[in-house]
Amino acid sequence: MDLLTQIKEKAKQNIQTIVLPEGEEPRTLNATNQLLGEKIAKIILIGDKEKIYKFAEENNLEHINKAEIIEPSKFEKKEEYAKIMVEIRKHKGLTKEQAYEQLENPYYLGTMMIKAKDADGMVAGAICSTANTIRPAFQYIKTLPGISVVSGAFIMVLKDENFGEKGLLVFADCAVHPDPTEKELAEIAVVTAKTTKAIAGFEPRVAMLSFSTMGSAKHPMVDKVRNATEIARKLAPELKIDGELQADAAIIEAIGNSKAPNSEIAGKANVLIFPTLEVGNIAYKLVQRLAGAEAVGPILQGLAAPINDLSRGCSVSDIVNLVAITANQASDF
Q: How many structural domains compose the chain?
C-alpha cells in the first residue's frame, strides 16, 4: 500500500469535517464528490447552493448532496462568529461591522468555522494566493502553544528504499519561513516530528542539517544549527534528534558512522531540517527532479488547527490528497 493510500485509509478510520471555501470551483466540486463517495471526510462547501447543485447535476456528481453547503450571506451563526472575532482582534480595533464584512469572505468564514469548532480543518488555494489562505489563520487561529512560527513540510517518496524510512523522508521548512532564528528552527524541528507521526506514520529521527558535522567547520551559521538542536531537545526531550550534520552523514550509514560515530541519528535520519527556506526549497526540488521522487505537500504546520494551501495549478487528485492529509492532521489535535 503506497503512502497516499495509507493516508486516505487512516482518514476513513476517524472521519473529520473539512471546510472547502472555494465551493463553486470545478476541481473542488469534483474532489468533493470523490471524497464523499470514498467516505474520506465530511465536507463543508462555501458558495452559492444553486450554482453548486447545478454544476453537480450537469456533471453527474452524485455525492455532492452529502456535503453541507454554507452561503455566507445567509449564514445563521454570523452574530456568534463576529463576537469571537471582535474579542480576538479588539486590540487591533476590529469592530463588529468589520467582522461581519470579513465573514462575507469565504476564507475568513472557513477559518472561523474551525475556530468555533464547527469544522476540523480547511483546504484552500485552488483560486487564491497563499496569503489569502493563511492570513485569516494567522489572525484568528494563531500558532500552537509554545510555537511561534508556521512552516511547510514535504514528504518525499523516493524510489530507493535504502534511504530514510523505507524510501520516505520528511523535509522542512521548504515553503514558508525564509530565515528562522535558532528558536524558530528548533520549533520547526519539533512540529515536523509531529507531522511525521500524524501523516507519514513512522517515528521521527531528526537530523538538523548544516555544511558541518559535529564541529568539523566553524561559522555562525553552524552555531545556529547546533544551538537550535539543543533548544529542540529542551522543547521535546523525548524527540530523537541530532545536529549539526551534513546531508550525507545524516542519511548514509557508513558516512554517519565515520563522521559522527556517537550519534544515534547519523546515517539513520528520516526527517531532515534545513537551516533556511532557501536551502530547503532548493533541496526538495532537486530531489524531486533528479531522483524522480514524489513530493507530497507542502503540509502547513505550526498552526493551532490544520489549514493547508493548494497550488493554483492543482488537480482534482491534489485536492483529494490534501484533504486526506488535513484530516489526518486534525485527528492528531
A: 2
